[in-house]
Amino acid sequence: MDNKDRVKDLYLMMKKIREFETNAMNLFAEGEIPGFVHLYLGEEAIATGVCSNLREDDYITSTHRGHGHILAKGGDPKYMMAELFGKETGYCRGKGGSMHIADGSKGIIGANGIVGAGQCISTGVGLTILLRKTDQVCVCFFGDGSTNQATFHESLNLASIWNLPIVFVCENNNYGISMAQTCHQKVKDIADRAGAYGIPGIAVDGNNVFAVSEVAHEAIQRAREGKGPTLVECKTYRQRGHFEGDPAIYKPKEEQEEWLKKDPLPNMVEYMIEEGGFSREEVDALDKQVEEEIQAAIEFARESPFPAPETCVEDVYSDIVEEVRVR
């Protein structure tokens, strides 16, 4: 793949995430999407840069803010949008919603609404890789707020002791719900916490997809070679509130304005036109391609049926639990 093709692929994924999230925002505001929605707007470069280095048989664990991770790992926007709509054709048959999308066939072990839960899940995944003696890798995405949880420290400790093939990716968007990072921890760089566990810790500009991809490539290769985990801190900013409906009055206006100047999408377009050999018309054509894909996903979701009422407890309990109960 030449450099122009690589840039195109990175931009297409970032644009797909942006378009998906922008539409999810509007559809939620219009009442078409029920429940809670936590948007990834402003953080697109992280999932894109990291997942561009993964194979299809690698794994990721996600968070309540997981749409970008799932798209970047190959999730289908049709089934994702259907899940947000609560439709039968969604990834979890409309019963998981925005925070609980999973697709085992693509190594997407699942998003979930428990802060820090993905860290423990990824440790289990990493252990299975070790026991099966494959060269797969698990990437664990999480936010800065979760790095104060016991799950974070326990998972990094076990992963380092057992030399597990995990890349821990902290998406530091400056806020744990409504509390700024400067108020909930003393350290400036969360990556420094890796030193306590004897593993590499790297802080990177999370709004620069090329920088993220380069750091992720090294960490993933290290894990694939059996050299153990790495903690990668991607410094970024969520452009919306913690969830849709959160007015985000805790975010200073000047801070928001400064971070919007670092928006990864327009900065990527500027690079493509000024240095990447793309014309404005080529970028517009890529935008149209993505917009049509997301609109098709929305129509798919709208036209899909809701789950039948009698299926309300299906897909809730595993068959194993049912078998044990029957015995």
Notes on the protein architecture:
Helices cover 46% and strands 10% of the residues. The protein is α/β, with parallel strands linked by helices and 327 residues long. The longest helix has 27 residues, at 3-29.
- The Rg value, from CA coordinates, equals 20 Å
Order of helices and strands: HHEHHEHEHEEEHEHEHHHH
Mean of residue pLDDT values = 95
End-to-end Cα distance, whole Å, is: 56 Å
Going by helix content, strand content and strand pairing, the class is: alpha/beta
> How many β-strand runs?
8
Strand content: 5-15%
Total DSSP helices: 12
Low confidence ranges: 321-327
Assembly classification = single chain
Shape, please?
Answer: globular
- Side by side, the strands of the main sheet go 2-1-3-4-8-7
Specify the helix fraction band.
40-55%
Largest sheet: 6 strands, parallel
Features:
alpha/beta; six-stranded parallel beta sheet; two-stranded antiparallel ribbon; 46% helix; 327 residues; 10% strand
Structure described in brief:
The protein has 327 residues and is α/β, with parallel strands linked by helices. The protein is built from twelve helices and eight strands.
